[in-house]
Records
---
Amino acid sequence: MSRLVDLMQSSGRPPADSDELSAGTVENAEILPETRLVFHTDPRSPGADRYRLLRMRLRELGSSGKLKTLLITSPLPHDGKSTVCLNLATALAEGGKKSVLLIEADLHQPILNARLRLKPWAGLAECLEGTVDPRSVIRRVHPLNWYLLPAGGSRVNASELLQTAALAGVMSKLTPHFDWIIVDSPPVLPLSDATSLTRYADATLLVARADQTVREAIDETIAIIGRQRVIGIVLNGVTSFDRSYSKRYQSYYSPKAPRSEDENT
Ligand SMILES: Nc1ncnc2c1ncn2[C@@H]1O[C@H](COP(=O)(O)OP(=O)(O)OP(=O)(O)O)[C@@H](O)[C@H]1O
Ligand SMILES: [Mg+2]
């Protein structure tokens, strides 16, 4: 662990007013293949490139000043929400120009710490119960360059907790400090949590799993959330397109022909 001053020298921009945050605390993540963080482990892959495209679109929307807090959800469990959150947070934080916070709002089955091989610490559940201040439990995840508010301990009353007024307080304490806030949510159809969370997000990005999520489930999810809140759908796990894409554009991925990044978009 090191203090914020080290962070400022070695990496990207720290959150605004970072003195108020404990974000100087750094946790070292272990990124394994099963973490599925392709943006970090395989930055020249078609999958990583798809996240660059998503980042570009979000930055365009974000530059209007109307988009900062983005809820990631999906119709059903295991569609890939947390995977998309990890990759998107890493993409948005790349280059260190923007401060990015990932909030794990799945209080039923928190998995982000385990996925990153981080020991658990208090998080959103404890913030909502009022036992900790959200600004005191945010930590920077190295080497990914973004900040994590984990779910904390799992709770049987998770849905009730997310419906309390405390959530508004947590979000208002955190929002001024970051350029982007990504909220990893439970699925929409089995639980009310995501619907509660949409109120605190500027927009919602839906994740659908290729060859798994049926059209009716997407339609029902959009009807529950409200069409005006949904800014797009990420199709996770499109393998056939990846194969043809990488064959056709193989030369672009060779080390001799490095690709330009869209850092300024
Ligand atoms: N594109 C993919 N290809 C193969 N496996 C994937 C892909 N995306 C995610 N997975 C795997 O599917 C499982 C579920 O992914 P993830 O945890 O991201 O989904 P989730 O929607 O967040 O799930 P939950 O609803 O439980 O929160 C994980 O084991 C993950 O590694
Ligand atoms: Mg998840």
---
Amino acid sequence: MRLTQLQIKNFRNLESAKLTPVQGVNLITGDNASGKTSLLEAIYYLSHIRSFRTRYTTDLIQRETPYLQLVANIETVEQQIIPLGIRRSRNKSEVRVNKEPVKRVSDIAAQFPVLAIHPDSYKLITGSPSQRRQYLDWGVFHVEHGFFQSWQRFKKALLQRNAALKSKQKFDICQLWNKEICNTADYIDQLRSQYFLKLSPYFKQLTDIFFLNDKVTIEYKRGWPIDKSLVELLELNIQKERMKGFTYYGPHRAEITIKVNGQSAQTCISRGQQKTLVALMRLAQAMQFTEATNKPCVLLYDDLAAELDANHRKLILTELSKMNIQLFLTAIENEQIDLSAWHEKKMFHVEHGVLTVKE
Ligand SMILES: Nc1ncnc2c1ncn2[C@@H]1O[C@H](COP(=O)(O)OP(=O)(O)OP(=O)(O)O)[C@@H](O)[C@H]1O
Ligand SMILES: [Mg+2]
């Protein structure tokens, strides 16, 4: 999967830009506030229908314009071209895949797997467990089929159970959804743990290179104790849950914990180490994806030079150059990024929202 063309209209400060990237590495340089992150954000938006820096999609629409538009071509490994299109106004969103309108984000996401590393990415470690579940589920969704449907079914059943708990319905009413919850929960856990098992060796291989003198461990926790069945727990805790108004245990409480020398990465390592770890988590994910599916994914790396010291930057660039992915990097100046390890490369420059190709 690779992006072969992207036309951007009214996306943040990018009024009109056309990008024709290569399969290898694409470096976008430019001064502060020129539009580098916005360009990566547009690619990310095309895959996720949301941004990595704001919850409010309307922030993305260029000020004083009615809508943003992204029109792209994706090329599959079989060299088939898939046109994608998004038009977002302040109250309406239209998404097209293969010129047909699609309703669900998953329809576009499945066509165009994109991962991003950006200055706020360290929050994957310091932020809430839901972010780490999202991290895990990106891979499960793209690699393990059947996940999306089960997750939708689980979410629906959980919502109904929680609503019953909150409104203090009778016990037997609250328990009506237990069976659906347990069936889907076990399947979700099975897919997540299978994926996690496949992902872990890639992560270990990378942390062994970057954390020479430290022991980094990563662990998946399914959201209910390992020695108990969820059916039992749902039955057992109903009284407490009815008081609180929500379901205690289940895959909605799953978590990934990362430790460095036995201590939580959330609180016991430096910000720079957190940034490195997050980059490695994403790299591991991109590697596993590419090898498991035989399809290259797209990786966006915003501000790599500002994020890491010279040694870590060099190590990351070496790892990136070995991967079969389409890469988009941003930097203020191109001297900050050594692209000599890549055969296929293209350089772009952005100035006040105007994108040009650098020779
Ligand atoms: N909706 C919008 N409409 C117009 N301009 C916007 C909008 N949202 C953000 N901008 C502007 O777009 C410009 C580019 O921002 P962007 O974050 O892409 O810059 P950058 O090149 O990544 O800069 P830096 O090097 O500081 O990270 C900023 O000046 C910002 O104020
Ligand atoms: Mg930026």
---
Amino acid sequence: MLTNDLDFRLEPRLRDLYEEHKKRSAKIDWGYHEFLPWDKAQDFRRVPWDPSQVTLPASVVTAIETALLTEVNLPWFTSHLAQTFKGSLTVIQDFVHTWTAEEDQHSSLLETYLLITRSVDPKRLHELHKMTVENGWQPDFHTPFETMVYTSMQELATMVFYNNVSKEANKHDPDLGRLLRRLAKDETLHYAFYRDIIKFHLQLEPNYCYYLGHVIKNFQMPGAVMPDFEDRMAIIAKEANYGPLEYFDQVLDVIIDYWDIKNLRPIAPEAEKARLDILKYHDRMKRVKERFMRTQK
Ligand SMILES: [Fe+2]
Ligand SMILES: [Fe+2]
């Protein structure tokens, strides 16, 4: 019988992972007040916002705004995780609390940065923020294992996004580059936790392969619910270092390799079929990427 819940036999190992996470995150603990250029702040009532005050290129603003509108949906991510892991391993429920506390300052940091530096129309930003949270987030998977596969990929993709955008941002404002690298560090630790949980499960029971495919093949950033998401991502791909090429090389390829999908040997025929499907999907994406690279030359 294939299960899509987490395996209770792994609880002690996951406890160790969680303790390790807390140690590592305590070492890099930070408050968002430390990363903002407060001396640039001006009262919007005294000095109203005007487009001429924007100094960053539009592509960088789009990237930061897109990241912000992803992070603001934290209440819905937490609610999804809390519901999904209810009755599952308590260590995961504990981690969701720690994770939420860590994620909670990401949107504050990005939003305050945009407001202080006057990089966006504050009224428009407020409306987008509200609209995005009101829309919420409804993923099409609900089981503990699939949710954990998704969060592994999402944390890795977010880490890569921040690191890549920081390279472009740094050229225009080193404060922004530094702030994005800091966010990336948090995402790195989150990614490490989730990805190892999946790895332990696959090692213990390769039949879990059955539940990998749907999430891997349909992965979409959680921000996909915000207005104009596709247009935003097209701009970011072109001018801020994160697009389908980076997704393939730095996310999909990395995770398929880390979980060693090539060498897993599930017993259940449907799990083996799922494993081969993932490898086929990976090959197809690789060919698409190579074709695209050739047309770019
Ligand atoms: Fe985050
Ligand atoms: Fe994260």
